[in-house]
Amino acid sequence: MNPANPMNPVNEEWQPPRLDGSVAVVTGASRGVGRGIALALGSAGATVYVTGRSTRTEGRTEGLPGTVDDTADEVTARGGTGIAVRCDHRSTEDNEALTDRIRSEHGKLDLLVNNAWAGYERSSDVRFDAPFWDQPMWRYELCEGSLRAQYDITRLLTPLMFERGEGSTGLIVGIGFTDGDTYLGQAAYDVFKSANDRLSKAFAADLRKKKIAALSLHPGFVRTERVEAAWEALGDGPAAVVHTPEYVGRAINALAADPDVLSRSGQVLSTGDLADEYGFSDVDGRRLPAFRLEGRMSLATRMDRLNRVVARAAAS
Questions:
Q1: Which residues belong to the active site?
Q2: Residue 107 φ/ψ region, left for φ over 0, alpha for ψ in the -120 to 50 degree band, beta for the rest
C-alpha cells in the first residue's frame, strides 16, 4: 500500500512501458530532475542524448556532483543507449551542432524534454527571495536565458520530429513549476516559470496538425543533489514530501508510451496526478500526490533557505 495515501495501492516493481527505437533529448541532465528522466528513459530502452554543461573533462557547474558522461553511462547500463553531449543551450551554435549530430546519427527525434534551468545559479550571492528592487540584473538574465534556451533548442529540433515513422507520436515536455495564481516569491523566477507553461501551450498550438504533443510537467519537491547536500538540515518538514528525480522520469516514460498523448497537448500536468492515473510509484514504493504550496512561505524563500544550507555545508 502507499504509505502517503493508504487508499492507493502501489506497484512494488515498476515495469516501464517500452520505448525501444525511440530517440530522446533530455536537456540539463548532468544531475537532478534531468538525470532522473534520462535514467527512466534508459530503463525503457530509449536512446537518450544527455545534454548539459558539466563534463568529466571540462568541469561541473558550481562544483555540484554529476556530469553528462556519468548520466549517459548509467542510461546505457540500464538497457538504453546514453549519448553524452556537452551543450550550453543558451548558445545557438551549440544547439545547431546538437541538431546536426542527431540528424546525422539518427535522422529523427521522438522526444524532447526541456529541463535545463540556470535560474538557481549564484543563489548564495544575493538572497533568492529578495524584492525586485534589490535583485541584480544577472538573476533576471539567468532566468531569461533559461527560457530562451528552451525556445531555441525546440525550434531547431522540432523539424527532426517531422521525420518520425508513420503511426508514432512525437512529444515535447517542458519541466517547470507554478501553483496557479500563487506568487512564487521572486519576480523574475515567477515570470519565467509561468512563461515556461505558456511556451509549451504555444508549441502545442503550432504543432496541432503535426501529430506532436507539447505540454508542461510539474514535479513536486525533488531530492536533487542540491537538496541532498542539505538533507539533514531539512528534517521532517519538506523531507516528508520529497520524491526522487526518477519519479518525474517515470511520468514522462508513461506519457511517451501513451498512444493518446496528443489529447494532452497544451496542458499543464503534475507528476503526482500522473502517478495515480498511470499507476506508477517512486523508486521507494511511495506514490506522492501533486505538490502544492502551503502556508505563508513562498517557493523562492524555501529555495533561498535551502541554498544557504547548501552553501554553508560546502564551506565547511
A1: 189
A2: left
